[in-house]
Write a structure and sequence with these properties.
Homodimer. With 389 residues, the chain is an alpha/beta fold. The chain contains twelve helices and twelve strands. A seven-stranded mixed beta sheet has the order 2-8-7-6-5-3-4, sandwiched between helices.
Length: 389
């Protein structure tokens, strides 16, 4: 058999997809599984977006587009980002990508040479570490502490800075912790990045899924950030359009042009009709989006109450995203053992905190993106399992 490239040994996998596969196997054996592992909205995209998608296909929007995306969508994104960040963004500062994931890949590919160091506050979305290592970069993790609400400490970040530091990847609202960074956190990171010529990749894909009337703080709202930052967001969460595979990166024209070049060499461009539908997502009525966010907040409140009733569990209330990240140290079990036993013995699929790096030991990640009945049933099963230990 032909030998695999050695770089494949550093390419990671995503815990959610592995657990989903295991859960499906158990389901084939006839077990009933409650799915709380996948970070996918349990809603459909807004109705007018679906209508626009059908019409776009019928109208022949089924061809290649420029690698950076169609101009009208870049324009719509530029307007939305300008409005929400209070700055002026032009279409030339936007690249539309095949999912936010390809924007992350493109940003790291464009800047990281073998041996370059990337600072990643962790636990974190596993793609950042996986892609960094794949292209030969070195990950410098900064452990996020529960006592600080899982917000990064600038002192801890500074300790990891060296002459090889090339980038820092941040994520707010944050998967898996549900933390939302404050403006001060971002100001300190931008100051450091400007002083040391470090690129800030800010993944803001959960920007709209934020609770208690809080406002999302974006890297792009910090004066001077545009010189050193790439902001990434997309359509998977706000408009529940995961399968459309549409994300975007915003930054200096030179930065986004490079990401478009990476895209040209991988997917060429995102699907044409998906891009047309995305214009309607941005420019159309937002009521369904607001209702979805209110619904996530109700689910967040429900899961928070449920978790506080489970012995050995404790949890900070997530300020954003659709993830609960309970501390499970009181159970005496490791995260992986508990996640595995909950799947096999209680029929609840969720993720070990360690799916987001070693810093996730002592935690579980539970998605509350699905139906309320599943959340209630899942929590009931976890509670019963824990009291049977
Ligand atoms: N960033 C984070 C933090 C995510 O949680 C996800 C999806 N789970 C993505 C990026 C990727 O989103 P997309 O579907 O746009 O590729």
């Amino acid at each position: 058999m032909p030998r695999f490239a050695s770089r494949m040994s550093s390419l990671g996998v995503e815990g959610a997809f592995i657990v989903l596969a295991k859960a499906r196997e158990l389901e084939r054996e006839g077990k009933h599984i409650v799915h709380l592992e996948i970070g996918e909205p349990g809603y459909n995209p807004p109705k007018h977006v679906i209508e626009a998608t059908k019409k776009a296909i019928e109208d022949g929007m089924t061809k290649y587009t420029p690698s950076a995306g169609i101009y009208e969508l870049r324009e719509a994104i530029a307007e939305r980002v300008s409005e929400t960040r209070g700055i002026e963004i032009k279409p030339e500062n936007v690249v539309v990508t095949t999912g936010a994931k390809l924007a992350i890949f493109g940003a790291l590919m464009s800047f990281i040479d073998p041996g370059d160091e990337v600072i990643i506050p962790m636990p974190a979305y596993p793609t950042y570490e996986s892609v960094t290592k794949f292209i030969g970069g070195v990950v410098r993790p900064v452990v996020l502490k529960e006592e600080r609400g899982f917000s990064p400490s600038i002192d801890d970040i500074m300790k990891e800075v060296s002459s090889r530091t090339k980038a820092i990847v941040i994520n707010t609202p944050s998967n898996p912790t549900g933390a939302v960074y404050g403006r001060r956190d971002l100001e300190e990171i931008v100051k450091l990045a400007r002083e040391r010529d470090i690129l800030v990749i800010s993944d803001e894909i959960y920007e709209d899924i934020i609770f208690d009337g809080r406002k999302h703080e974006s890297i792009l709202s910090i004066p001077g950030a545009e010189e050193v930052s790439i902001m990434i967001s997309g359509f998977s969460k706000t408009w529940a359009m995961t399968g459309y595979r549409l994300g975007y990166a915003v930054g200096k024209k030179e930065f986004v042009d490079k990401i478009a070049q990476v895209q040209l060499n991988t997917s060429s461009c995102p699907a044409h009709f998906a891009q047309v539908a995305a214009i309607h997502a941005i420019r159309g009525p937002q009521e369904e989006v607001y209702e979805m966010i209110r619904d996530y907040e109700r689910k967040r409140d429900a899961i928070y109450d449920e978790i506080s009733r489970i012995k050995g569990f404790s949890m900070l209330k997530p300020a954003g995203t659709f993830y609960a990240f309970p501390n499970i140290r009181g159970t005496g079990l490791s995260s992986e053992e508990l996640a595995d036993r909950l799947l096999r013995e209680a029929g609840v699929a969720l993720l070990s905190g360690t799916a987001f790096g070693d810093a996730g030991e002592g935690y579980l990640r539970i998605s509350f993106a699905g139906p309320m009945e599943d959340i209630r049933e899942g929590m009931r099963r976890i509670r019963e399992f824990i009291s049977s230990l």
